[in-house]
Write a structure and sequence with these properties.
Blueprint: H1 8-11, H2 14-32, E1 39-40, E2 55-56, E3 60-61, H3 64-80, H4 84-107, H5 121-140
Antiparallel strand pairs: 1-2, 2-3
Length: 150
């Protein structure tokens, strides 16, 4: 009886690799948001409020909820990267979600109670570039395929 081993790196499509990488980065960001020092003003972190003074890398305003969303988004990316269609959906839908978050951040006052995530200007523009980048990856890495995944 022979056994066959499968090398995951050679059997993944480019869109799966991209979704896996994006998911891993979100997972890492979610973890880093809970580490004092990497997160400045850690002791001011709230569960969900514009009053959360904690900032990842001293730049991006975060809260416990914000970190949990990053963790969930990371797990989703890693899980959906198992198939090309799942990876494509993750990148396209996730990119759309980030563009909506960008618009939300632009139109909701940063000191408003509606800014419960919380978001600051750095978060807003990061969300814009993430949204565009994820959609571009999902679209460009699958454009030549007639069937994304069977």
């Amino acid at each position: 009886m022979t056994t066959h081993t499968r090398n995951a790196n050679t059997t993944r499509t480019p869109v799966q690799k991209a979704a896996l990488a994006v998911g891993a980065v979100f997972l890492l960001v979610g973890i880093l948001g809970f580490i004092p020092g990497i997160t400045t003003d850690y002791d001011t972190m709230k569960f969900a409020s514009h009053e959360s003074g904690a900032e990842l890398l001293g730049i991006f305003q975060i809260s416990v909820l914000h970190n949990l969303v990053h963790l969930a988004f990371g797990v989703a990316g890693i899980a959906l990267a198992r198939t090309a269609s799942g990876a494509r959906t993750y990148l396209l839908a996730g990119g759309a979600v980030y563009l909506v978050l960008w618009l939300y951040g632009l139109f909701v006052g940063h000191h408003s109670g509606a800014n419960f995530v919380p978001l600051n200007a750095a978060d807003d523009w990061l969300h814009f570039f993430l949204g565009i980048g994820m959609i571009a990856l999902g679209a460009l890495l699958t454009r030549s395929r007639t069937a994304v995944d069977r």
